[in-house]
Design brief:
The complex is a heterodimer of chains A (about 130) and B (about 270). Chain A has about 130 residues and is mostly helical. Chain A has a two-stranded antiparallel sheet. Chain A is elongated, with a radius of gyration of 22 Å. Chain A is built from 6 helices and 2 strands; from the N terminus they run H-H-H-E-E-H-H-H. In chain A, a hairpin with a 5-residue loop joins strand 1 and strand 2. Chain B is α+β, with helices and mostly antiparallel strands. Chain B has one domain: Alpha-Beta Plaits, CATH 3.30.70. Chain B is about 25% helix and about 15% strand. Chain B has 10 helices and 11 strands. In chain B, a hairpin with a 5-residue loop joins strand 5 and strand 6. The longest helix of chain B has 18 residues. In chain B, about 35% of the residues are buried. At the A-B interface, helix 3 and strand 1 of A face strand 1 of B. Strand 1 of chain A pairs antiparallel with strand 1 of chain B.
Chain lengths: ~130, ~270
């Protein structure tokens, strides 16, 4: 092999750097679901807890299109309750603690949604 | 083992047909049909979307501004502008980065199509309340590359800020200067943020929405409420509506009619 003295260290360096996330996370313990602060007043969200945890992003994404573009601002949930489609006025009125609810899980999972670039955080923070 | 081209084509076309046909069989991966939630497939969710019963509806929303009433009580201008800008979190920035939804200007600036050399003094001296005209043929909608701005079925030209990429084609297209660009984060320029309405972010264009979010709640636009009767708002498609009555009783003009955008805002001089 030509230039083996350069190529082998290069390959080794590449493998180490490429797999470094695995090394660096070794021994840090298992990922634990962050304990988010649930609303004190309400027991049930618009849909079941499992559905909301898994699919709130799709639901919110669809809500914004339906409300803004199709002028349908009322959502009748699977249990028959009707809700006004509004992140700020409906969702955040119960989930008033953005830091302990939204951010906690988003930060733990490394997602950075830009909802609050425009939508106003509820005053009841902290 | 040697295959002829003929054999290969037979096998290939049969497997292609099999793959294509599998989509229509139940229980095969990829054959799942979207469920009831619009055209979007959720895992298990037969929810319904509808417009609220209390929402105000119209064939074509329109507005008539009585400039005589505003000339009589010029304080109304600021009341109307404040009512709109405070509710909608419109930042107050001076200079070229100004953001405005509703504003005032002179006769020569507002009605450039009026060819009269010697219009009545009262008409020239007046200030005119200007806002998005919610045109029937909106130039801004035609040029928007992402359909972030679009005309609703009831004639309101609205913005979907989620889709706006900030190209400002709409601002170049709009002949009325009704659109403003957020050159920087608007939040520091908003004194008291209204908690029930979003702000905008850096890099999007904003404008008047005919208070579509309030119409959905069955309320009238804020400028109409704050004007104390100087602004009439209603359905241009209904001959019995308040706007059509005001239009039938008064001589009205629109801004820049020669451009063919067909504004929905009329002015009584």
């Amino acid at each position: 092999m030509y230039n083996a003295k350069y190529i082998w260290p290069g390959i080794i360096l590449f493998v180490v750097v490429f797999t470094s996330p695995f090394w660096m996370n070794m021994g840090l313990g298992k990922y634990e679901r962050p304990a988010v602060a649930l609303p004190l007043t309400e027991k049930y969200c618009v849909e079941s807890r499992e559905f909301m945890a898994a699919e709130h992003m799709q639901l919110l994404d669809y809500w914004r299109d339906v409300a803004l573009r199709e002028e349908k601002r009322e959502y009748v949930a699977t249990d028959g309750t009707s809700w006004t489609i509004s992140l700020q006025n409906t969702c955040m009125s119960c989930h008033a603690n953005k830091v302990e609810f939204c951010d906690k899980c988003h930060n733990a999972n490394g997602v950075d949604p830009y909802c609050w670039d425009c939508h106003v955080e509820p005053r009841g923070n902290n | 083992m040697k295959r002829s081209r003929r054999q290969f084509l037979k096998v290939a076309s049969l497997s292609f047909l099999g793959l294509a046909g599998a989509r229509f069989l139940p229980g095969v991966a990829g054959a799942a049909t979207p469920n009831a939630v619009g055209d979007k497939a959720f895992s298990s969710q037969p929810a319904i979307y509808r417009s609220a019963g209390k929402a105000k509806k119209a064939v074509h929303w329109g507005m008539v501004i009585d400039t005589r009433a505003f000339a009589k009580e010029p304080v109304k201008f600021q009341q109307v502008i404040d009512a709109c800008h405070k509710y909608h979190n419109v930042p107050s920035i001076d200079g070229k980065k100004e953001v405005k939804w509703i504003w005032t200007d002179g006769y020569r600036q507002a009605f450039t199509d009026q060819m009269d050399n010697y219009p009545a003094e009262a008409v020239i001296e007046r200030q005119y309340l200007l806002l998005c005209n919610h045109c029937v043929n909106p130039a801004c909608v035609r040029v928007c590359p992402t359909q972030a701005t679009f005309r609703r079925s009831d004639g309101i030209v609205v913005m979907d800020y989620h889709r706006c990429i900030g190209c400002r084609f709409c601002m170049a297209g709009c002949p009325f200067g009704a659109r403003s660009f957020n050159f920087e984060d608007p939040r520091p320029y908003i004194d008291n943020v209204n908690q029930s309405f979003p702000t905008r972010m850096r890099g999007v264009v904003e404008k008047c929405t005919f208070c579509s979010e309030l119409l959905a709640e069955g309320k009238m636009p804020l400028c109409v409420e704050a004007s104390g009767g100087a602004i009439t708002f209603g359905d241009l498609g209904d001959p019995e509506s308040s706007v059509r009555k005001v239009l039938a009783e008064n001589f009205t003009i629109r801004r820049k009619p020669t451009l063919g955008t067909e504004p929905s805002v009329y002015y009584i001089l």
